[in-house]
Amino acid sequence: MSTRTLSRAALIEGARQALPLALSIFAYGLVFGVLAGQAGLSAPESLLMSMLVFAGSAQFVALGLWVAPLPVVPIVLTTLVVNVRHVLMGAALRPVLDDLPRRLAYASVFFMTDESWALTMSESAAGRGGSGFFIGSSLTMYVAWFSSTLVGRTLGG
């Protein structure tokens, strides 16, 4: 089966290639979980932040701004500035995601990381690495990030 389409084989290949990188993501997530606890976030709050924001660098920056009362506008603006590169990275993925319905293509970009993007672009340049590969690698990073956040927050205290 081709890894250029959304197939089971492509999803598995993307996940397989992402596993070594997911280990490093897991390490950073552990640190984030510990720091989130020190900043006063509960385990559910830490997990929710990692699942909804899913942007490690922005999350670390947000923790530095985390005080009472919560400065929502500065945190949101900082998150946007730190992650503006994802707009260009997502645009570069458009040809890779052509086989997906538009709604699914846009939704899948939420799970994009620098690592999954780089893996996918490298595979795509070699004539492989389509939408299935991207989604498989991205979801592997997502699971590594939010699960390690929870582990770090739970055990870090």
Describe the protein in words.
By secondary structure, this protein is mostly helical. Helix content is 75%, strand content 0%. It contains eight helices and no strands. The chain has helices at residues 8-38, 43-52, 56-65, 72-82, 85-93, 102-109, 114-125, 131-156. Helix 1 runs parallel beside helix 8 and helix 3 packs antiparallel against helix 4 (72-82). The chain is globular. The protein starts with 7 loop residues before the first helix and ends with a helix. 35% of the residues are buried. The model has no long low-confidence stretch (mean pLDDT 92).
Question: What's the SSE blueprint?
Answer:
Blueprint: H1 8-38, H2 43-52, H3 56-65, H4 72-82, H5 85-93, H6 102-109, H7 114-125, H8 131-156
Task: Measure the end-to-end span.
Answer: 46 Å
Compute the number of helices.
8
Structural class: mainly alpha
- Give the low-pLDDT segments: none
Sheet with most strands: none
Helix content: over 70%
What is the residue-mean pLDDT, rounded to a whole number?
92
Beta-strand residue fraction? under 5%
Radius of gyration from CA coordinates: 16 Å
Record field, number of beta strands: 0
Give the overall silhouette.
globular
Order of helices and strands: HHHHHHHH
In short:
This protein is mainly alpha-helical. It contains 8 helices and no strands. Helix 1 (8-38) packs antiparallel against helix 7 (114-125), helix 2 runs antiparallel to helix 8 (131-156) and helix 7 packs antiparallel against helix 8 (131-156).
